[in-house]
């Protein structure tokens, strides 16, 4: 299992590096595809993945990403309202085939998966985005690695949560400190502006906190629906949502911290 997880992790990282460096439309369409797969996994949790309302959700996801790419926020609100109306129409027409939780999950998925993941390409497209986009991964994957290492080495006090009984307070704090430290090293290597030397550690630390909440939120959804993993697409890691659960939360946070701080 470890070798499988390591090999798939290396492949995933190689693809991520290539996409982040190249950017442009390839990154946009890959994020759009990842969103669709993530929606499929989320809808599957409530038994909706192959239904007509889910098809409306997939279409809504693609259009939403296109509107976000072009900063068409006025039309985005209109599209989201229209999507909700379509979901509710499906609910009414097919009643009682689907329940309110299933229909709610359709709309929730557009916000939770599509819109929040879209901030990956939104960050990449800002000025110096080729560098700043890595803050998303520092706050998510970097934080997770640091939290795991610190938790294994000195973790003694369990987190007061039933969602992840193996997580410790020391591990969580280690993740925050580790993300801040990586952010500082990243800033020192790539930037001469000393203001950035404190800005990136702050962004790393804040996004680490949010990342850990995102990870637990995804776990909570799985617990509620009695599933271990969202899918099996990534060997050793599970599905798209199992691997990108923290990215979903860190991407918008990094985007707005960059907008407000830098």
* Poorly predicted ranges: none
SSE succession: HHHHHHHHHHH
Portion in beta strands = under 5%
Q: In total, how many beta strands?
A: 0
Number of helices: 11
Q: Can you tell me the overall shape?
A: globular
Task: State Rg.
Answer: 19 Å
Largest sheet, strands/sense/barrel: none
Q: In whole angstroms, how far apart are the ends?
A: 42 Å
Percent helix? over 70%
Structural classification: mainly alpha
Average pLDDT across residues?
92
Word description of this protein:
The protein has 262 residues and is mostly helical. The chain has eleven helices and no strands. α8 packs across α9. The longest helix is centred in the last third of the chain and has 31 residues, at 194-224. The mean pLDDT is 92.
Brief write-up:
By secondary structure, the protein is mainly alpha-helical.
SSE topology:
Elements lengths: L1 H21 L1 H22 L6 H18 L3 H22 L5 H18 L1 H6 L4 H4 L1 H21 L14 H22 L3 H31 L15 H22 L1
Keywords summarizing the entry:
mainly alpha; 79% helix; 0% strand; 262 residues; globular
